[in-house]
Amino acid sequence: MNTQKNNANSFEYHQVIIIGGGFAGLGAAIKLKEAGIHDFILLEKAHELGGVWRENTYPGCACDVPSALYSFSFEPNPNWSRVFAPQAEIKKYLQNIAHKYQIMPNVKLDTEVLFAQWSEQDQCWIIQTNRGEFRSQFSIMACGPMHEPVLPDVKGIQEFKGQIFHSARWRHDLDLVGKRVAVVGTGASAIQFVPQIQPVVEKLTVFQRTAQWILPKSDIDLPKPVQMLFKYLPFTQQLLRGGVYGIFETINGGIQSPTAMKQFQRLAGFNLKFSIKDKELRKKLTPDFIIGCKRILQSNNWYPALAQPNVEVIASGLSEVQGNTLIALDGTTCEADIIILATGFEIAEPPIAKRVFNRYGQSMADVWQGSPEGYKGTMVENCPNGFLMFGPNIAVSSSAFIIIEAQLTYIVDALKQAIDLGIRSIEPNPKLVKAYNEKVQQALQTTVWNQGGCQSYFLDRNGRNSVAWPWTTFELKKQLKSFNLNEYLTDFSPEKADT
User: Fold this and answer.
1) Is a pLDDT exceeding 90 seen at residue 251?
2) Which UniProt keywords apply (predicted)?
3) Do 290 and 377 reside in the same domain of the chain?
4) Which 8-state DSSP code applies to residue 137?
5) CA-only gyration radius of the chain, Å
6) Dihedral of CA 98/81/177/212: which sign?
7) What DSSP string runs through 23-83?
8) Rounded mean pLDDT of 401-407?
9) Containing domain of residue 165, as a range?
10) Which residue of 43, 263, 345, 354 has the smallest Cβ count within 10 Å?
11) Which helix (H) or strand (E) holds 358?
C-alpha cells in the first residue's frame, strides 16, 4: 500500500484498482497476480464477495448455464451437486477461489465507489469511496450488469398497502404462506421462484407483459460417484464442458439467423403444448416473437406451476395500484397482500456509467445518452487506462465466463505491455471506435435480437442494440487474444520517451 499526501488530502495509490467483487473482479485479481502485477486492490461495496450470486437469494435461484461451463476454465469444480448449480454453491465456489488464490489481502470490503474520474493533470484515476480517496494508474471496472434492480414506474405503487420488494432483494423475513401474492414480470428470475412459492400462497397472480419461450431444463443431480469421477479423472469434466460449450455455440450461431431460430423454436412450442393443456392459458403463454429475441429461458416447473388452480396469469403489464388493488393495462384487477417485482436489471445502461467520468468531467451515461459505445467491449473514448468488464456489445448467448476470460486476456496483455514499455496512458483511437461500432451495428441488423419482433434488454431506450456481440465466441476470443497497441493512442512517460 502506498499512502500519499496531497495538500490536506490523503489517499492510497496503487498501480491498478479493480471495482467490483463478482466473478469478473475476482478473475481480474487472479490474472493480475499471475502476470506478476501485485500492486492492486479490489474495492467491493458489500460485506462479502459474490456479485450477482450474493445479491440474488430468492427461492430456486440457480444458474441457467450448466455449471461445467459456468466456472473458470482454470479452476473446475468437481463438487457441483446438480448440472445447473444452485445460488449458494456458486457463491461458495467464488469465495473459495478468492481464498485459494490469496486474493482477500487485496480486497477492501464495505467500500462503495461513489465516483471515479480520470485526471489529466495527475495522469491517474481518482476514485472517491465511502471510505476515502484512492488513486491508480489503471482501473478495471468489473461491476457487472445484473445487480441494480429495475423498479417499474407504476402509478400508486408507492402507496401500496401491503409489502413490496424486488426479487434481487428477497425478503426472507416475510412469510408468504396463505398470502395473496402478485408477481410483476416473467423473466429469468420469475420462472425460478414462482414454482417455489406457488404451493404455499393462497393466490398467485402473475402479470405477464410479454410471454416467454421456455425450453425444458436438463437439470439432474450429480451424485457422489459422478463428483468423484470429475475429481480424479478431470478430463471427464473437461469433455462435459466442451460439449456444453458446443451446444451454446450452436445456439449463439443460430441467433445470427431468424430462420434458423424458427426451427429451434419448435422445441419450445412442443414444450408449451405438452405442459399446458388449457387452451386459453396456452394462448396467453404463446409468445409473438422468434425465440432468441429475448434471453432464452429453461424450466421444467414453470408451466406446471402456472397451470395450478391458485394461479392466475394476467397477460398484461401492471398499470396502477390503488390500495391493495392492482390494475393491469387491459383493465383486469386483482387483490394482493404482497407484490414481488421480477422486473430485471439495468443491462443496456450499466449503473456504473453514472459514476465514471472521463477527462472532461462527463459521465459515461451523459456521453452515451442511452446508447453505450466502446471499443471491443472493453475500453471507452476519453477514459484512458480504464477497462470495462461486460462493456458495450460484448454479451453472448453462452456463459459469462467466456466473456470474462477473453476480456481478461486482453486487459492483462495491455497492462503488461504498458508497464514493460513505460506507457503512461492508453485510450481507444476515436476513428477506429467509430468504424468498429458501425461494423458491429451492421452485423447485428440481421440477427434475431434485432429482427425477432420483441423489445428486450438487448435494445436500449433509443432502439439500438448496444448489448449483444454479433459474431461467434470464437471470433470474440480471437479479437481479444492480444492487445494491439497500434489500435490505441498511447502516451509514454517522459523518461521512456527520451530513450
Assistant:
1) no
2) Monooxygenase, Oxidoreductase
3) no
4) E
5) 24
6) positive
7) HHHHHHHHHHHHTT---EEEE-SSSSS-THHHH---TT-B-SS-TTTSS-TTS--TT-SBS
8) 97
9) 157-213+256-341
10) 263
11) none
Residue 499: predicted pLDDT: 43
> Are 313 and 188 members of one domain?
yes
Residues 49 and 178 reside in one and the same domain: no
Q: Strand order of the sheet with strand 325-328? A: 318-322, 325-328, 333-335
Whether residue 203 is contained in a domain is answered as yes
pLDDT tens across 143-202, in order?
877 767 888 889 999 989 999 999 999 999 999 999 999 999 999 999 999 999 999 999
Total number of domains in the chain = 2
Kind plus residue range of the DSSP H or E element containing 352: none
Among residues 292, 326, 341, the one where a domain terminates is 341
- 176, 367 Cβ separation under 8 angstroms: no
| Whether residue 184 sits in one domain with residue 123 | no
- Residue 419 falls inside a structural domain: yes
Rounded Cα distance, 341 and 350, in Å = 19
Q: Which amino acid is located at 332 in the chain?
A: T
CB atoms within 10 A of CB 304: 13
Q: What are phi and psi of 261, to 5 degrees?
A: -70, -30
Answer yes or no: do 361 and 493 share one domain.
Answer: yes
* Domain-located, residue 226: no
Instruction: Please state whether beta strands 386-388 and 132-141 pair in parallel, antiparallel, or not at all (unpaired).
Output: parallel
Tell whether 9 is covered by a domain: yes
Is the distance from CB of 72 to CB of 97 less than 8 angstroms? yes
- Shared domain for 411 and 283, answered yes or no, is no
